[in-house]
Design brief:
about 500 residues, alpha/beta, Rossmann fold, pyruvate-formate lyase- activating enzyme, 8-stranded mixed β-sheet, 19 strands
Length: about 500
């Protein structure tokens, strides 16, 4: 009972601090992309308005994480701190929790996001300073948690919550996936942000969500493990209001973060038209989608997308080899169908349609699957080099709970279990033929040069950004390169080893 009392607060407005982690993806260097964590502002918008809430994306202050957290705790004096965490950010998150308790003993700490939802046991160690785990969608669970704290009531009835109860953890029933109907989930609260500097290729950027979920069962996907196979949508009125709010807060580029907006092509077409009709097509939009629906419906969809302002499309190609697609359970979403029959792979047609409509393809591929050889990896890399505008090539990563993880364990192919390296571009699993480091080397060797080919397009669209940052962009892409390697006196393997050491050091934010 004393433990429960320690988790409650007097009945009053609380100070709430929400943090996302500073760890960034290799393919999204902060010199070019500093994307906000949409979960923070969504949580901020969905707690009761009498609480004082501040949201801070620590990706904006990678070089001063400790100093920023110290300042925020001093200025905000939080009663509750919530952390949004992905798997490769786990180590950083636990360090930040320790820092929080050293600055404000007794502060109540809540963790949520993909990693705590799929691996809650990793956050239950005795003495780590974490009091609550929000599993799954967080808006309603976090709102109810704050109400329980404020009202000095218990936590046992809050769905989707795990909490410390004495020396043990109580795991409440899961919270059902929300339908997104009505206004129970409110708009994000962007005014809660206390840091600034979100950019994408020099343009102020924000994120907007129009739907949640996916009905496919890709073996590598954490989404379906977290929320099941389903698809729910917001009303267009809400989506347009969200876009307007982002634009009013300065955004000139928007990333639509939907898990799979192309599940309903007719809705996507209607959304594009709604954006046009509302005069919100003066923004650069980025979206992620499947190859199959774009290939089959692109003649009508792609012109609407371009007119609505879409500029980049993250295309889930996954792999160009059928055997790898079958392992990834991604064949169905990459097939082209005519008269109800499969007639081939949809990737090339989808890319061609997007290019004809003056959109750029961010090519999402996964190399290093169990049967991969040098030849199969090279085939995917050569495809990316020829057809995509910006490579987003990753390695299969055994995230907690995914079907792929079970298969890698069964085949004894997982070689690295340090979760901070589970960032998608550090190879942590072997194939039947290749070691992880060799897989990563092959991707790194080819990918650096692919990225330079997109520079002319960026110059044409954002010349001042490139003028100010071209050296930083090249320095990031070619980290580890030396004068000796440039003149051929040092091997690419040596440069790769130096790059990996630099990348490892960059992960230490505290």
């Amino acid at each position: 009972m004393s433990q429960l009392r320690n988790l409650l607060v007097p009945s009053r407005a609380m100070n709430v601090l929400l943090l996302s982690m500073p760890d960034s993806f290799e393919h999204m260097p902060t010199v070019a992309v500093r994307m906000p964590n949409g979960a923070l502002t969504s949580l901020a918008g969905n707690i009761d308005p009498h609480h004082r809430v501040a949201a801070a994306d620590l990706i904006l202050v990678q070089n001063n994480v400790r100093g920023t957290v110290e300042r925020l705790v001093r200025e905000i004096q939080p009663d509750v701190v919530g952390l949004s965490v992905m798997t490769f950010q786990r180590k950083t998150a636990l360090r930040i929790v320790r820092l929080l308790h050293s600055l404000k003993p007794g502060v109540r700490v809540v963790v949520g996001g993909y990693d705590p939802s799929l691996a809650p046991e990793a956050y239950m160690d005795e003495g780590n300073g974490i009091h609550f785990i929000v599993r799954g969608e967080g808006e309603l669970t976090f709102r109810e948690l704050l109400r329980a704290m404020e009202g000095n009531s218990g936590f046992g009835s809050i769905q989707g919550l795990s909490y410390r109860a004495g020396d043990a953890w109580q795991m409440n029933q899961p919270r059902p996936v929300h339908s997104l109907d009505g206004d129970e989930i409110r708009l994000p609260k962007r005014d809660a942000r206390v840091l600034s500097g979100y950019t994408m290729m020099g343009r102020p950027v924000d994120v907007v969500e129009t739907s949640r979920g996916c009905t496919f069962d890709c073996g590598f996907c954490s989404i379906i493990e977290m929320r099941g196979r389903n698809f729910h949508t917001y009303s267009f009125d809400r989506v347009l209001a969200d876009i307007r709010d982002a634009r009013d807060h300065g955004a000139r580029a928007l990333f639509i973060v939907d898990d799979n907006i192309t599940l309903n092509i007719r809705r996507f077409e209607s959304l594009c038209q709604a954006i046009i009709d509302a005069g919100l097509n003066d923004i650069d939009y980025t979206v992620q989608g499947m190859t199959s629906p774009i290939a089959m419906h692109g003649d009508t969809l792609a012109p609407l997308m371009r007119k609505a302002g879409f500029r980049y499309v993250f295309l889930g190609i996954e792999n160009i080899l059928e055997g790898d697609l079958q392992f990834l359970k991604a064949s169905a979403k990459n097939e082209f169908r005519e008269d109800g029959r499969r007639t081939g792979n949809a990737t090339l047609r989808a890319i061609d349609i997007l290019h004809k409509n003056k959109m750029y393809v961010v090519g999402g591929l996964i190399v290093g699957n169990p049967e991969d050889t040098h030849e199969s990896i090279r085939a995917n890399l050569e495809f990316a080099s020829e057809y995509v505008d910006w490579p987003y090539i990753q390695h299969p990563t055994p995230y907690p709970g995914t079907p792929m993880t079970k298969e890698f364990k069964a085949k004894n192919l997982i070689r690295i279990e340090n979760m901070e390296e589970y960032d998608g571009t550090t190879a942590v699993v072997a194939t039947q033929h290749l070691a992880p480091q060799e897989i990563e080397y092959q991707r790194w060797l080819a990918e650096r040069w692919m990225k330079t080919r997109h520079i002319p397009a960026v110059i044409a669209h954002e010349p001042m950004f490139v003028l100010r940052n071209w050296w930083k962009m090249l320095s990031h892409t070619f980290r580890g390169t030396s004068l000796r390697s440039l003149v051929g006196l040092e091997s690419s393997r040596k440069v790769f080893e130096r790059y990996r050491a630099i990348r490892s050091a960059e992960r230490a934010y505290l």
